[in-house]
Design a protein that fits this description.
Layout lengths: L2 E2 H7 L3 E3 L5 E2 L1 E3 L11 E4 L12 H6 L4 E4 L11 E4 L3 H15 L3 E6 L4 H12 L5 E3 L9 H7 L7 E5 L7 H8 L4 E4 L13 H9 L7 E5 L3 H10 L4 E6 L6 E3 L9 E5 L2 E5 L6 H16 L4 H9 L8 E5 L5 E4 L6 H10 L8 E7 L8 H13 L5 E5 L13 E5 L2 H5 L10 E6 L6 H8 L7 E5 H12 L7 E5 L1 H5 L4 H8 L5 E4 L2 H9 L6 E3 L7 H6 L3 E4 L2 H13 L7 E5 L14 H10 L3 E6 L11 H19 L7 E3 L3 H6 L7 E4 L1 H4 L15 E13 L4 E2 L5 E2 L4 E6 L17 E4 L2 E6 L7 E4 L10 E5 L5 H7 L4 H7 L5 E6 L1
Parallel strand pairs: 4-5, 5-6, 6-7, 8-10, 8-11, 9-10, 11-12, 12-13, 13-14, 18-22, 19-20, 19-22, 20-21, 23-40, 24-25, 24-31, 25-26, 26-27, 27-28, 28-29, 29-30
Antiparallel strand pairs: 1-3, 2-7, 14-15, 15-16, 17-18, 17-40, 23-32, 32-35, 32-39, 33-34, 35-38, 36-37, 37-38
Helix pairs in contact: 3-5, 3-6, 4-9, 7-8
The structure holds pyridoxal-5'-phosphate.
Amino acid sequence: MKYTAQELASMTNSRITGNKNEVVEQLIFDSRLIFSSKNNAFIALKTQKNNGSKYIKEAIEKGIKVIIADEIYESSGQDITWIITSDTQNFLRQLAHHHLQNLNIKTIGITGSNGKTIVKEWLYQCLWDEMRVVKSPKSYNSQIGLPLSILQANNDDELGIFEVGISKPHEMEKQSEVFSPQIGVFTHLGSAHSEYFENEEQLLNEKLKLFEKSEVIIYNGDHPLVKSKIQSLYSNKTLISYGLDTSNDILIESPIDQEEAFNIKVLDGHIQIPFTNRDQATLHNALAVIAVLNFLKITHSKIVEKINNLQAVEMRMESIKGERDNLIINDSYNLDLDSLKIALSTLNQYGNKSQKILVLTDIHDVKDHSEHLYHTVANLVNEHSLGKIYLIGTEITKFAHLFNSKTYSFDNIQELIEDQEFNSIENSLILLKGARKFELENLKKELELQSHDTVLEVNLNAILHNINVHRSFLKPETKMMAMVKAYSYGLGGYEIAEFLQHHNINYLGVAYADEGVDLRKNKVTLPIMVMNPELNSYDTIIDYQLEPEIYSFKVLDLFLKALRKKGIHERYPIHIKLETGMHRLGFRREDLDELLLKIKENNLRIASIFTHLSSADDPEEREYTLAQIDLYTNNSDYILARTEDKPLRHCLNSPGITNYTEYQFDMVRIGIGMIGYTTNPAIQPLLQSAVCFKTVITQISPLHPGESLGYNRRFKATNDTNIATIAVGYADGIPRLLSNGKGFVGIKGKLYPIQGNVCMDMLMVDIGNDPIEEGDDVIIFNGNPSLEKFAEYCQTIPYEVLTSVSRRVKRIYIKD
Ligand SMILES: *Cc1c(COP(=O)(O)O)cnc(C)c1O
């Protein structure tokens, strides 16, 4: 888009003050994502969870000249153009609606419970070289994501492919105010969003409102309810159904389990496609794409070629520890302008490296003149302060002069891999962004820290999902402390904390001062509570602005001494721990008067008052837990009535959040729940597993009857069998307890017993005569076996399992 501020105001009936001629090409709603002020406007969106007006100051500091908000925030600069609207979300919708009307563009709108993003990405892959296509970035399909996606469309685009999602009743009405696609696609009806809907039918009715003005609806006809609803509601439109059922217009005629290519019936004949991946969801998604291409009159031979070339939509960006303290961000699954933009903007989330480096290849999947394309690319890249840029390919290197940073050119990846200077880069963040053809995987392998095949894979998206599940139980104003003690339960140090810092966590909790120092050194700025301040750590606590838990008079006196020694007079924040039933640490009622007196005399600030529940995960201990909470309420009330400070109150850990929600007070402390573990059967299905410990088979060898395995010959074969040796042992955190059939690992979804004694760096698994090969993946936990099951083998709880995975196991972080 490109409008003047005046035009933006007129299209949305908003008030405007300041320079009406400022040009706006992009709206930004997250102040962290402002890298350039040129022709960017900041929109202070109000959502249930957040109020963007908090960030106006930051936006102005970053040079933004146009602000869209619900009022003028007086304190800010002089030369700002304000566009004032009573409802910023509505502003966004109106603007997107008008923008779309100004364009001469064909539109496809995709909705459904699953498959929206894949179908959209696949359609894009199939159509980008037929016409100029704009699409929603990633899975931008929400009330905010849809209008923002539409605003990315420009005059010369010919087709817009947009996803439309809803999560609550009446949202589709608003979405369809913005956008009513000419071609509607309905992918799938499931229960994924059903918590706000009474039943499937209500959900379906809501979704189908999107198509009220569509000319054609292409839908999955295998679902009887979907089929009958669409047919009765929209009998006046062109309807095209696809699916496996024989009543569909577009369908697979061959039996699904046959080896050869499938025979697919389309509107005007038959085509043959050899699918390798034949799970139902994939077939449905592919049929949806075929149906759209067929409707758009793409020739049969082109459809076959395009479908054969579809790439798996891997939308994950991985960050991997590299050699020489580098951090590698690998996002080389696809390369187009949107994904480049997104990848560049995520670089900002990693603050602790000395410089940022970009490796970028020729861009293939974009239909544009290279001159124009690479000017756009260079402008995008130049918005970020990069230390060095490595350009790969014969096209992009012609435009090296357009990039502001120090730029190096190579024809292919191999040349780069061999480059000396590239190989001496240290302590940097390296973003790999390249088209498939360039095989950036090879570069990634070179850069990775030691190729150790054993990894603990941590899925940050799942952590965020789990936090949101827990948050959904809480009042919007309740704060959240994330417990990142013990290396975040074994998952990682600053990597996790830094991620949490970007996702609305208010406080962090660590066990020891050292853990807090590590976070501070890696630019974590959230307030951090230290639970076990050791005798000698008080100086450190003060130096690094950590906040101690005070659980006894002894600790209080030591801390006061440290403050005096440092000559600190401001009111230092402390956290008071109350003893209510753990019988571990904390103050009791009889201590409180003396405690309050000391705090007052020494001018400390009570930042919070808390206690810890012993059995929030145990339904049988409900009475005890309620008594703990009751005692906590009384004793914290007592303190509250006698202090001017407004301490936060908190007592719930993860199981507490779901099982004792009404006692959330001002804050909760989430720990294991982030990782996706709970003992509550009603909650478990809502959570996603955020961690997977896996390795590969190093070697397979036969074992004959009478032969023995490993140290002390603890296993002897009775039949002919095969033994897989895998490279994890007790030094990696696999207890020796699992030797000799006590523990199991997962290979290709099936469990196999560990036999012989677990060694320091290896263990052996009896795989019988199953078709398993060297190099196959082995799951230690999560998947099959689950974390819980594995903990059972180890005769312990998931907490201990996680914190026992040794530091030498490489942690890999996955995030969108
Ligand atoms: C570890 C810890 C938590 C988090 O407990 P989970 O069971 O992992 O949610 C909460 N509060 C305190 C004081 C803790 O030490």
